[in-house]
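Sequence, please.
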């Protein structure tokens, strides 16, 4: 049985993690055994430790290239331990963030170069690409407002950047949508949660009709 790799992308505050939870609740009972849900950075002991370091609000002195390398390292370990074995077993893997996040955040946001970061992650992933990517789009100011309202006690290092940083990140994601329309599907995340879930569900059902009941 062929495995499938589905990723979710977007600025923090876009609701992608909440939508993923709701999609998992809607899975067909007979298909639930085929599904693995994971996240980046994270998913296993080593990658979760790297995640803690990356998101630590006290790690403000972290160099941009160090950040990019740590994300790539966490991603490699996550693939080896979690994603690749699941795909080999015919599982459907849903991952909250993947390479596109690094290209957008470190490549465009940190201005390290989108091509440079893509090449770094080409090495880290050995070229493994998602079969489908759901990109939850919204203006950064809306995302930051949501974060300040719903996550007042969970502000991490990346939540403290200036507006132009997030604008570069969003622009990078939108370029990705234009460049890879067959893989990356844009979902309007400015509307209600119910509507966002409906959009994501419709897209998923078009690509994996057997998965949702």
């Amino acid at each position: 049985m062929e495995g499938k790799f589905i990723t979710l992308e977007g600025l923090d505050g876009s609701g992608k993690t909440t939508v993923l939870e709701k999609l998992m609740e809607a899975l067909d009972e007979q298909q639930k055994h085929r599904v693995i849900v994971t996240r980046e950075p994270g998913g296993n002991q080593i990658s979760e430790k790297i995640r803690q370091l990356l998101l630590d609000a006290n790690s403000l002195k972290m160099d941009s290239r160090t950040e990019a390398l740590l994300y790539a390292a966490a991603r490699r370990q996550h693939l080896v331990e979690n994603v690749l074995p699941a795909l080999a077993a015919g599982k459907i893997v849903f991952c909250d963030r993947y390479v596109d996040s690094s290209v957008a955040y470190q490549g465009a946001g940190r201005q390290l170069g989108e091509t440079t970061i893509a090449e770094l992650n080409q090495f880290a992933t050995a070229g493994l690409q998602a079969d489908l990517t759901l990109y939850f789009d919204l203006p950064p100011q809306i995302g930051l407002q949501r974060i300040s309202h719903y996550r007042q006690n969970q502000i991490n290092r990346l939540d403290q950047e200036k507006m132009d940083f997030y604008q570069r990140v969003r622009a990078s994601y939108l370029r990705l949508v234009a460049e890879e329309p067959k893989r990356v599907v844009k979902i309007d995340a400015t509307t209600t949660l119910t509507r966002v879930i409906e959009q994501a569900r419709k897209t998923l059902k078009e690509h994996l009709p057997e998965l949702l009941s």
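The chain is about 55% helix and 15% strand.
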